[in-house]
Amino acid sequence: MKKWRLLLFTLLSIYYKTTVSQTVFEHTSSSGIYLFLDEMANEKLITLNTAVKPYSRRIIAEKLKQLTTLTDQLNKRQKAELQFYLREFYIEFQSDSTITTSVPLKPYRQKNGSTLSLLPPIYAFSSKPFSLSFRPYGGGDGYANSKGTIYNSYFGGSIFMYGFKNIGIYANYRDAYQAKEVLAMPTYLTQSPGANYKLNNGNRPGGDYSEMRGGITYTFKWFNIGIVKDHVQWGNNYNGSNILSGRTPSFAMLKLQVKPTKWFELNYFHGWLVSEVIDSSRTYSPGTGQQRTVFRDKYMAANFITLGPFKGVALSLGNSIVYSDMNVQPAYLIPFLYYKSVDHTLNHGIDNQNSQIFFDLSIRTLKHLHLYSSFFIDEFSITRVSQKDHYNFYSIKAGAKVNNWPLKNIAYAFEFTQSTPLTYQHRVPSLTFESNKYNLGHYLRDNSREYFASLAYKPLRALTFNVSYTSITKGIEHPYIDSVGFTPVDMHPLLDTIVWKNRQITLGVNWEFAYNCSVSMDYIYSSVSANSANSQTADYYLQTFSPAYLRGRNNTIKLGLHFGF
């Protein structure tokens, strides 16, 4: 009996010595830290899987720790940025004994375990094994051009906690208002985050929305698992991913990350999407004079495996399936399966669900240079390759970014994206690659082409000057109708009929005076035009793809003030 007690005590001791990690995700809207870590990866100072976002705050702290041993390879501005971010992620160094740094930290003002800061607005408390951080935030952007002025504003707060050596908890609430006109409806071809707006609420022109994100996670030494409601972005990019863009309203998911070695990483989630397709069989009248409307259930399972076969090279491959008209399927809860094959078993002899496969290649073998490409395949048939005038449904992205060459503190990037007709679409409304009617993939959707180039100069830690050029060409969105009397769905060539174009130049300056607190100003020249096609007028396509405020030629000034995101 004593031997069993001794064995149990030994196992528990090993457990508590190794399980000292917690996971809380830092949202991608914290662009400063994401760009800094990307720069450090491009300088070959750290290795980082940039194909999968958001990063956890612990991973960010570990990378910052690694950089503290390489300060002799950083320039003055980079050293200042490192110290700036070490200060922000001080709570991770306090709450996790495995993260230590030789660089003296300059935390926010502390007393008796409590931390208080006005810029950025933070209250934190740390007393092992428990840590907490609360942050109120608010701000907005104003726009002015010849059509008048509009603005958006928001307020809210976030909180995250670490406890019991393995548990991470976080929550984020935002309440926002877009005055006069909403700039991010589901059909608009913009990168503004999607939201479920209450239009003209209280007779106020524009739209209101609220967004609640958060989750609870459990972390062991080489994996973490959690139930979260958040955004997911898969695929390397600097101007919108074509695999999972993270632009839809957040949705609930069971999320898993596994990284047992340096060269292997598995990311998986099973998500509860929002179909917004009415289920007439479950819609009913409760007898109160109103109808109770019910949406069809909609789910998604996806995995993404990243391999590091050579130093500086990361190859990621994965697949996903959107499914409905059934309960949660246990087979789709297995994180490493090929779901299309599972689908063929579950739906033998009847219509299949909607499956996809995708790849991402990231190359950082040369210092300063990042080469990347991602490939999203919606439908693919070998016979279409050899058949004339038959086309597969896919999206491809390729790009390059250079940091600190030939001049220090300079970064420039070029990116190309192209999606063939019918990519991301499906003939069954409840199986589309969407949630809340926002496309999960690239923001331009199918039958589109984009060129993007940018140049940024950051002379100081807090100050960034940037210029970018974007050229977008959009073809007609053909309906996914595969029946007699209609053109076969695989016989629509790329950009066969061009219906919408946008040429945009942006000049901007951003001053991040505290973490996630910034003042910005942008000048935006845009030329948005459309053509008539398929018995629809040019105005129809302008209204479908762009808000009235941005149609035609515009010289727009954008001013932003943000205290947290």
Structural write-up:
The chain has 565 residues and is mainly beta. The chain has a single domain (18-184, 194-563), classed as Capsule assembly protein Wzi (Porin, Beta Barrel). It contains eight helices and 26 strands. The chain has helices spanning 2-18, 31-42, 57-67, 76-88, 90-95, 339-346, 382-386, 538-545; strands spanning 52-53, 110-111, 114-117, 122-127, 130-145, 148-163, 167-179, 198-199, 206-219, 223-230, 233-234, 251-261, 264-278, 295-310, 313-324, 354-363, 369-379, 393-403, 410-419, 434-435, 438-439, 448-457, 463-475, 498-514, 517-530, 552-563. It has an 18-stranded antiparallel barrel. A two-stranded antiparallel sheet has the order 1-11. A two-stranded antiparallel sheet has the order 20-21. A hairpin with a 3-residue loop joins strand 9 (206-219) and strand 10 (223-230). The longest helix is centred in the N-terminal third of the chain and has 17 residues, at 2-18. It is globular and about 70 Å long. The termini are far apart.
Number of domains: 1
Number of strands: 26
Q: Which overall shape is indicated by the principal axes computed on the Cα atoms?
A: globular
- How far the N terminus sits from the C terminus, by CA atoms, comes to 56 Å
What secondary-structure arrangement, pairings included, does this model have?
Layout: H1 2-18, H2 31-42, E1 52-53, H3 57-67, H4 76-88, H5 90-95, E2 110-111, E3 114-117, E4 122-127, E5 130-145, E6 148-163, E7 167-179, E8 198-199, E9 206-219, E10 223-230, E11 233-234, E12 251-261, E13 264-278, E14 295-310, E15 313-324, H6 339-346, E16 354-363, E17 369-379, H7 382-386, E18 393-403, E19 410-419, E20 434-435, E21 438-439, E22 448-457, E23 463-475, E24 498-514, E25 517-530, H8 538-545, E26 552-563
Antiparallel strand pairs: 1-11, 2-3, 3-4, 4-5, 5-6, 5-26, 6-7, 7-9, 8-9, 9-10, 10-12, 12-13, 13-14, 14-15, 15-16, 16-17, 17-18, 18-19, 19-22, 20-21, 22-23, 23-24, 24-25, 25-26
